[in-house]
Amino acid sequence: MSLITLAKALEEAEKGRYALGNFDCFNLEMVKGVLKAAAELQAPVIIAYGEPFIEHIDMPYFTSAVKEMAETANIPVVLHTDHYTKLENIRQAIRYGFTSVMIDSSDKPYEVNVQNTRDAVKLAHESGVSVESELGHVSGLGDIFEDDSHVFTNPETAADFVERTGIDALAVSIGNVHGIYKAEPKLRFDILEKISAMTAVPLVLHGASGIPDEDIKRAVSLGIRKVNYYTDMCAAAAEKIDAEPGRHLFDLCRTIVEECYKAAYKKIQVLK
Ligand SMILES: [Zn+2]
C-alpha cells in the first residue's frame, strides 16, 4: 500500500480503539523487520526517523526506500519524523514525502512551544501532512524523579495547547521516559484520564520500551493511540549480535531484520 497520513491512521485507530506501533528505524534492515511483523499481523504501522538519523542515512534515500517497501507491504504505513527540533528539517521531510512530522519544543517555555508547533502545523497542513507535538517533557535519561510534576503534562494546559496549535496528535508525559528505565516505571493514569477528557486529539506515549504490557493496554484503554518503541528493539538485535561474535557482516544484517521483526511482532500484539 502507499503511505498514509498519521491523521488518517489515527482516525481508524480511534474507531477500533487500538493503538498504532511507532518504531524508530535508522537502517533498512530495521524497516524490513518491522514491516514484516506488521504485515503478518495486518496492523497499520508507523516507521519513524529521528533527527540524528539524518547523519546516518540521508533523508531522500531513506524516504524513497521506505515508500517502495510500503508499496509491497500490503498494510497502511505512516512515514513520520520523530522529535524534530528544526523547522528546516521538517520542511525537507515534507518535501521528500513524509506523511507525518513530529515537532518537539517540549523543553522550551510554553509560548515558544506553542509558536514552534503552530509554525510546523502551518507548513505541514499546507501539504496534507500530519503533525504530532509534545507537551510536558519526556526525559531522555531513563531517570525517574520522586516529584515529576514539572515534567508531567498538565491537562488544562494540554487543552489550550491543542486548541491553539491545531495538532493531529499530542505526546504526553505521564511518568514515561526515553531509554532504559532506572526504576520501575509508574504511569500516572489519573493524569492521562484527565488529558483524555479535556482534549479531542489522539494521544501518544513515548518511551514505551520497559513499560509492562498491562500498563500499555491500560493506557490504550484511556486514549493512547500511538505507542513509540525503539530501545527494546535495538537492545534485542545488539544482544543477539554480541552473543555470537565473529560472524560475517551479511549474517549480522540478517540478524537485525529477524530481531526487529520479533520485537515489533510482540509489541504490536499488545496494541491490538
Ligand atoms: Zn520519543
Could you write a compact summary of the structure shown?
With 272 residues, the protein is of the alpha/beta class. 49% of the residues lie in helices and 15% in strands. The chain has a single domain (6-271), classed as TIM Barrel (Alpha-Beta Barrel), CATH 3.20.20.
Account of the protein in words:
The protein is of the alpha/beta class and 272 residues long. It has one domain: Aldolase class I (TIM Barrel, Alpha-Beta Barrel), CATH 3.20.20. It is 49% helix and 15% strand. The chain has an eight-stranded parallel beta sheet with strand order 3-2-1-8-7-6-5-4, with helices on both faces. It starts with 5 loop residues before the first helix and ends with a helix. The protein binds zinc ion. Zinc ion (ZN) binds next to loops. Zinc ion is lined by residues 83, 138, 178, 206, 228.
**Which bin fits the share of residues in helices?**
40-55%
Q: What is the name of the CATH topology? A: TIM Barrel
Mean pLDDT: 95
Indicate the proportion of strand residues: 5-15%
Secondary structural class: alpha/beta
The largest sheet, given as strand count, sense and whether it forms a barrel, is:
8 strands, parallel
Number of alpha- plus pi-helical segments: 10
Number of strands: 8
Q: Which CATH C-level class is it? A: Alpha Beta
The total domain count is 1
The helix/strand order is: HEHEHEHEHEHEHEHEHH
The CATH superfamily is known as Aldolase class I
The ligands bound in this entry are: zinc ion
